[in-house]
Hints:
The chain has 457 residues and is of the alpha/beta class. The protein contains 15 helices and 24 strands. The protein has helices spanning 10-21, 33-42, 55-61, 76-88, 101-104, 107-114, 122-135, 168-174, 211-220, 238-247, 261-270, 284-289, 305-317, 333-339, 347-363, and strands at residues 2-6, 25-30, 46-49, 68-71, 93-97, 118-120, 141-145, 150-156, 180-186, 189-191, 204-209, 230-234, 253-258, 275-278, 297-300, 322-326, 343-345, 370-376, 381-387, 402-404, 408-415, 418-420, 433-438, 450-455. The strands form 5 sheets. It has a 6-stranded parallel beta sheet with strand order 3-2-1-4-5-6, sandwiched between helices. A 6-stranded parallel beta sheet has the order 14-13-12-15-16-17, sandwiched between helices. Strands 7-8-11-9-10 form a 5-stranded antiparallel beta sheet. The mean pLDDT is 87.
Amino acid sequence: MKIIIIGDGKVGYSLAETLSREDNDVVIIDKNDEALQKASENLDVMCIKGNGVNAGVMIEAGVKQADLVIAATSRDELNMVCCLTAKRLGAKHTVARIRDPEYANELSLLKHELGLDLVINPEQAAAGEIARLLSFPSAVNIEVFARGRVEIVEILADEDMPIIGMQLRNISKTISSDILVGAVMRGEELLIPNGDYEIQKGDTLYIVGSPSSVYNFCKQIGRCTQKIRNIMVIGGGLIAYYLVQYIKKTDMKAKIIEKNKERCMELTELLPDTLIIHGDGTDESLLLSENLRDMDAFICLTGNDEENLMTAFSAKQLGVGKVIAKVTRNNYPQLVKKMDIDNVINPKLITINYILRYVRGMKNAIGNPVETLYRIINGKAEAIEFIAGASTRFLNIPLKKLKLVKNTLVVAIARKGRIIIPHGDDAIKSGDSVIVITMNGGLTDLNDILAPGGKLE
Length: 457
């Protein structure tokens, strides 16, 4: 596919890196010489200096032949105008990053009037992910598939769990046959395990199943903690605003600490039922005076990664059960593990996942389109949802008769209200939602999971 990316910031660069690696023809447009030089030196992409709104620049980039234009600059209005211009000049599809809450409330109208095919709001998406984590406190991470009917929940195996030393095949016999361990991270090594794999203390497990099945399994192994009701949020930006919108219909109540007085006044008007406190959220004495120790959850959402991590660490040391920190860079995974922070949220990665899912679906619109895609385990693997259809070459054949490509596993099948955790005798049928975990990037078709000569009639 020919893809034009307008804006070479963190999101634009990461998208270009991934999409070019998947054999797409990628062009980046940006006005920043330094950013373009970095992309030109490190990526297999074409770089054009200029304004993405300018028709001449767009035509030079090949917009008339473009399959997709992604506008990912820091300005919502610029992104919208870029997409409108691209569509008028002949681009087949457009994607815009739009953050402002005022625009978020009018997205359906904006999409229609501007011809936008996809709108992504990173802060709103991040807030939604935090809300899911708060609803399932024992999870390190949660990804949702099949319209919420299937979850992949990341948990850390500790010494008190009854599954330590147990082979995976025995979990289905003794604890639950309604879940599956789809991937394991042991130290720095990622594994797509088979039934002989033995769980050890410190393993990070990726549990697949329906929400109720995963919850019941976690309860049986002692990983379901008390429900969260009181939340302290540090930083009153857009994620905090959207988070309050998500949880206002639940039993959870949040208080927000924000050091910018003008922003506090804005939030007081926008969120009249939420306590807004003017102060420095990194000041431990302030946090203690606001009853930090009585909080069920503590969430750091400032614009500084180091402040978020250190403040979250302090909250954990003071006994808060659930601690979440926002980061914008990817170079912290080992540090986060050592600091015992429960969850890290990266809006950039969430944005990239959304757009990659859309691109994969476009590339295979006439086959088995990608419904959902998440890059998991620090980007080392992907969890992908496909819809099986007439072009699927192995319908109604038991899975035990299929040879899949290496490091790939079918972890769940959603069929007409049923969630199937597949075993050897199960088969994929037309219309099924099929969830796959793979270490092989770039899968665009359900047929790609089959090894050459891997089907037995």
